[in-house]
Write a structure and sequence with these properties.
The complex is a heterodimer of chains A (320) and B (118). With 320 residues, chain A is mainly alpha-helical. Chain A contains 12 helices and 3 strands; from the N terminus they run H-H-H-H-H-H-H-E-E-E-H-H-H-H-H. A 3-stranded antiparallel beta sheet of chain A has the order 1-2-3. The longest helix of chain A has 26 residues, at 292-317. Chain A is globular. With 118 residues, chain B is mainly α. Chain B has helices at residues 3-7, 10-43, 62-92, 95-117. The chains are: A mainly alpha (320), B mainly alpha (118). Chains A and B meet through helix 3, helix 4, strand 1, helix 10 and helix 11 of A and helix 2, helix 3 and helix 4 of B.
């Protein structure tokens, strides 16, 4: 019997603390907490890998709902772009979920170790997924006025970009029938218009991100955000907001498989989900007080340490 | 409807609807998980049982029933968010993206079917 099958007050508190830490660090650095939750559950609490992945997917959904609702309310989420990419990502998540319950857990451990080392390298490169106003400004020119837009692109009968400025509160807008849109950059007070290009890049990376999500229980935002921002030329703020909505939808594609097959332990998942929601909220508020470089170094150190442990577990499991 | 409401662009209106759906689902599910956790721990039954998606009420104790329903509500929240978006596009008459949304819903349905069939 695994340690996780008996969840008393002490273990529940420990799982909640894990969720808080993963949620805080994940929100502060701009990635989901799955890369921390899964290895902690497998290595620290003796969870079966499939159960740990299912638990992590539940935590990813909680993180996505919390962060995704905030970004959607701010009007920065491009829902057309999100669902266009979700076609590929949910297929990947479904395939990953099916594959994960068919292959040996040691193989998942090995893949996880490799992915975490790559994630650590990406984190140390210093790109902030949530970006800055300066980054957004560099990537996309602000519009000086509505007059610079064709009438149809100025929002049609609904008003569009003109209202971004006129209403103040309405800070996002999508073009009907396309993957473009606009949002009001609060830092500059100017509307930023954009149009997504090279959809094939987004689809390719989203398919991979979905497979990793289903296989490893991670959100995959560390792949989706760069794909949208660098590959599809979508502003970093819109990319991060859109990714936050997407990771929840991606996660349920594989979570449904795990859940239907009985890999979900609600008594163990509940404290993690509650903790990660609390941690994500705290992380979003407190991360300003810690430098991004410090957070990146903490996360990279944790990832490398855990990658080594997961690698050793995989090798041990193979009897090498 | 006020003039301001009539003039509001469809994009932000959809974003607002998604925000409400996600927050409501998250609030309800986390509340159920918190209550279920307290009930379960207070009952002295500390075994974490596996629960299947289609039988949340088959869990052996009251606490685990509440936890299972909370988990199910949380899992369904993003799906309801997608349905909300698609419903908005249906009202807008954006046929291309209604098709896109329908494809995503179909894949999610396939995930449920695959899990159930195994």
């Amino acid at each position: 019997m695994g340690l996780h099958e008996q969840v008393g007050l002490g273990i529940a508190a420990g799982l909640a603390a894990l969720g808080i830490f993963a949620g805080w660090l994940g929100a502060a650095i701009g990635i989901g907490g799955g890369v921390i939750v899964v290895p902690a559950l497998v290595l620290g609490s003796g969870f079966d890998t499939e159960v740990a992945v299912a638990t992590s997917l539940i935590a990813v959904v909680a993180t996505s709902a919390a962060a995704g609702s905030a970004y959607a309310g701010a009007g920065q989420t491009n829902l057309r772009l999100a669902l266009a990419l979700e076609i590929a990502t949910t297929v990947g998540g479904l395939v990953g979920g099916v594959v994960a319950v068919l292959i040996a857990p040691t193989a998942i451990d090995a893949v996880f170790a490799v992915v975490m080392l790559l994630t650590a390298a990406l984190v140390l490169r210093g790109r902030d997924e949530h970006g800055s106003a300066e980054e957004a400004d560099k990537s996309e020119p602000a519009l000086s006025s509505q007059a610079s837009l064709p009438a149809a692109e100025a929002g049609g009968p609904a008003g569009g970009v003109a209202q971004l400025v006129a209403t103040g509160k309405r800070v996002g807008w999508e073009e009907r029938g396309s993957l473009g849109g606009a949002y009001l950059d609060q830092a500059t007070g100017s509307p930023v218009r954009y149009r997504a290009v090279r959809l094939w890049i987004g689809w390719s990376v989203s398919l991979l991100a979905g497979m990793l999500s289903g296989l490893l229980g991670v959100g995959g935002g560390f792949l989706k955000v760069p794909a949208m921002h660098l590959g599809m030329k979508v502003p970093i703020k819109v990319s991060a907001a859109t990714s936050n909505f997407m990771i929840g939808v991606t996660a349920i594609a594989s979570l449904f498989v795990y859940f239907a097959r009985g890999y979900v332990l609600p008594l163990a998942a509940a404290p993690v989900a509650l903790g990660i929601a609390l941690g994500a909220y705290a992380g979003a508020r407190s991360s300003q007080r810690v430098s991004a470089a410090t957070l990146r170094r903490i996360l990279a150190a944790v990832l490398v340490l855990v990658a080594v442990q997961m690698g050793l577990k995989a090798v041990g499991g193979l009897g090498v | 409807m006020s003039d301001a409401g009539r003039a509001q662009p469809a994009g932000p209106r959809t974003n607002t609807a998604v925000k409400v759906v996600l927050r409501s689902g998250l609030g309800l599910s986390l509340s159920l998980l918190a209550v279920g956790l307290v009930v379960q721990l207070a009952s002295g039954h500390h075994r974490a049982d596996r629960v299947r998606m289609f039988a949340p009420l088959a869990a052996p104790t009251a606490g685990e029933k509440i936890l299972a329903v909370g988990t199910l509500v949380l899992a369904l929240t993003p799906a309801v968010g997608v349905l909300t978006v698609v419903a908005s596009w249906v009202r807008e008459g954006d046929r291309v993206f209604v098709g896109v949304g329908a494809a995503v819903i179909a894949v999610l349905g396939a995930a449920v079917a695959v899990g159930a069939l195994h």
